[in-house]
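Batch manifest, entry 17 of 40.
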Amino acid sequence: MQSAELRELTASWQEDEDKLTFIVLARPLDPSPSDLELTNEDIRALPMIGDVNLFFKNPREDPEFEVECEVMIAEPMYRGQRRVHAALVLLLSYACDKLGVTKESFVARIGAANARSIALFASLGFKVVRAVSVFDEVEMRIVDADVARSWPAGQVREYS
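Output type: structure tokens
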């Protein structure tokens, strides 16, 4: 990421083994059959529009272990198109399937006024479990196992 401002805002400047990031690219929403299989060159040409992150807090053996989820679409013209929903489902599925994270470990802390993000996480099985008035945010955790169980596993493809 070349933008110093975005690196600062997303904490992407730090080398941190406890953070997993997926970059969100602006792929066509309704791809034609020829767009379904992108080459590495095609991928490099897509604009980066945001990211989804997981922050691993405390060792896994610790009863306080949790994985905080965070999303950001920097480009306003790409918001509200379910791109971040798809990216977040892939990231959460990857963490469960490839890293062995349990769904009960996920937590999202969202500004109390951010109705769109709260709705996004609710659609994935998260529910507000407490309000943190000092930070004017809500804490959401997975409580709807049926919704969380329906996350589709994504295909992981190496990018070079």
